[in-house]
Task: structure prediction
Amino acid sequence: MYNPLELRVLTSFLVLADELNFTRAARRLNMTQPPLSLQIKQLEAQIGAQLFERNKRSVRLTPAGQVLRAEAEKLFDIEHRARQMVAQADRGEDVGHLGIGLTAISAIELVPHILRRFSARVPGVLYSLREISSEAMLQALLRNELDVAILRPPVTDPRLQARRLLSDPYVLAVPVDHPLATKPKVYARDLDGQSLATLERRYGQYAHDLTMTWLAEHNVVPSRMHDAARHHAMMSMVSAGIAVSLVPASAAAQPTHGVVYRRLADRDVPALELWVAFHKEIGNPMTLPFVAQAVESAAAYKVSEQYFRPPNQ
Result:
């Protein structure tokens, strides 16, 4: 006979998974340690797998425990969303939900622009936004964990559809006191011998390869190459005066202390494309209207030139 898991017990499991200490976990749960230990033993018996490795010195999750943790967190997200949607329905409001994946840079201006217009047309929608890598978004779409993904190409899986939103040309992010911050025009050749910060290829293969190919075509050899897993980490190095960096123009809409953004004067400046992707087997009626709004909003989006003025101008 099927014996469903109790949310109360899963809550205890998640707290212990966070703390990895029975005493601290019991304190957070306002209970004593023996009942918590009993709950975990009963949960392991119910699932048929050991969830924690325990000894006198430490507690850690087993591979089975790691899987349960990830799935239980999703379950509580669903439970929280269900409560909100039921409350909306009880108030007589239209109920809808969209799970959206997005890149860090699209979250600065473009996605708020899309959400503002979509919410005006379809009020009352509940949103779940996830800022993750483009590869992770593709996998989340295939697992039906996201309805829509705003990401970098390519999208090659035949189960998914994608539409181009925009092309975002590279600009140069430089420390405010760097000579290139005030140079009247900046070219690719000016990067030769500079210390450069880039995205790690495993976290942004498309952007990394586009950057390195363009620099090689202009015979640019950086003096040093720093890498980062995320855009914000890369900007930290620029802000610290350690490096310069090539970033999409829309990134300039988010001011970073000590960083100046400059347009590149070359005629062949590469641009990063941004796409919107979704599963062909659409389960959410909100998906296609949102995709249409994303395409419409992206067509009207333009990065302000005020972001690229040299200092004191």
Remarks:
- The chain has a mean pLDDT of 90.
